[in-house]
Amino acid sequence: MRDAGGAAGAVPEVWITGVGMTCSAGVGREECWDNFLAGRSGIGPIRGYDPAGEPVTVAGELPEHWAAEFKQAVRVPFVRRFNLPTRMSLFAGQEALEQAGLLGGVEAGTLDRGRCGVSMGVGGGPLHYLQPLEEVLRTKPEAADKLYDHYFVIKTMFNAPAGMLSIVHGFEGPSTTASAACASGSAAIAQALDWLRSGRCDLVLAGGADSTITAQTLRAYHAVGALTGDNQRGATASRPFDRTRSGFVMAEGAAALVLETAAHARARGAEHLAVLRGAGLVSEAYKLATPLEDGTGMARAMRSALADAGAAADEVAHISAHAPSTPQGDLAEARGIALAFGDRAAEILVHAPKAVMGHSIGASSAIQAALAALTVQRGVVPPNPHLAELDPEIRLSVSTTPVERPVPLALCNAFGFGGHNVSLLLGA
């Protein structure tokens, strides 16, 4: 039983009072939302390095105006010390806190620092700082020392996004980093939910960030059959659920959500975008890089989220699908949805955000959660672009145009290498 008023002995209801994000689809919450709603792809030719001769030449990089937007929005000294996931996290976190009416709240003494936490997910990490070093070590070892400066450790720390968010905003409660591959962001949000329910925190800034677009990383993912090599398709290379899908497109991004107990939010006069109703976390215990093809592991995560929320399957109106655009992954998830929802599976509106933004590993599921909160609040399910022909084995309601409809419950799926399966349930 969830209790919005925080009655003694009841499990506190958890509100989402602010979201922030940046990804290939846009810089900031509203630009991202507009482009997802328009089905406008952020995928294109790689700009960060010369991909000539590489098997993969497309990715979902941040928009070109990202650097200028960040510089104008985030005032942090010595920003060059921080890796890109950290900078994206600072941007998303600030935007989320601002929407929640909390930016500057700690400095003004309106929050209890010790009861504010940070939980961030990072899956791949700042690999683009390591690759140049490896190249230099291989070709010019005498020059390697020049790459080791006193910021190198800071730039390569997985926990830097969580650490810097807590430092910048003065949050003195728990601060941790979850790493569960593609489910890292959702795992971090689920951890925040536990902190709030247990009484450890009143407020948590939670989400995920990743930037793994390097020639070495893309080469490796392509070698194991995960990335598409359909470079000629450009912006439409990622096409979840399509009969001709051939792999995912690597991307980068970050999202942050302000989560707080309903009692805490009400006490400061805040309103919510959505309610974080529950989380389901399971391990497939099968293979590191291959999901159970029958979808049973994914179905367990979805059922677990429903059970955690005390919700019925027939209440769910929308699913934000993991749907990476891989032949195996998309089909396994469709089978899992069918197992979890039975005959209703074909009625639930499904959205695959990776068609627009690509797959930003640990950040993807956090961006999905932010989008789902906006979907619940605004009553519009974004479309699925690039879907020319639905795979005949996938029997889901996958619209190629936006659908206006009340969304009382939305499910967010994230399924990562290693069998890390996480589903989050959001409600109005």
Number of strands: 17
CATH architecture of the largest domain: 3-Layer(aba) Sandwich
Radius of gyration using CA atoms only: 20 Å
As for the number of domains, it is 2
Report the major sheet: 11 strands, mixed
CATH topology of the largest domain: Peroxisomal Thiolase, Chain A, domain 1
Helical stretch count? 13
Class derived from helix and strand content: alpha/beta
Low-confidence stretches: none
Folded structure, characterized:
The protein is globular, with a radius of gyration of 20 Å. It is built from 13 helices and 17 strands. The chain is 32% helix and 20% strand. The protein starts with a strand and ends with a strand. It has helices at 29-38, 66-73, 84-99, 130-139, 152-156, 160-169, 184-198, 215-223, 262-267, 296-309, 327-341, 354-357, 364-378; strands at residues 2-3, 11-12, 14-23, 26-27, 44-45, 58-59, 116-121, 175-178, 203-211, 252-261, 274-283, 318-320, 349-351, 380-381, 403-404, 409-416, 420-427. The protein has 2 domains: 2-267, Peroxisomal Thiolase, Chain A, domain 1 (3-Layer(aba) Sandwich); 278-427, Peroxisomal Thiolase, Chain A, domain 1, CATH 3.40.47.10. The longest helix is centred in the N-terminal third of the chain and has 16 residues, at 84-99. Strands 3, 4, 7, 8, 9, 10, 11, 12, 13, 16 and 17 form an 11-stranded mixed β-sheet that branches. The chain has 428 residues and is of the alpha/beta class.
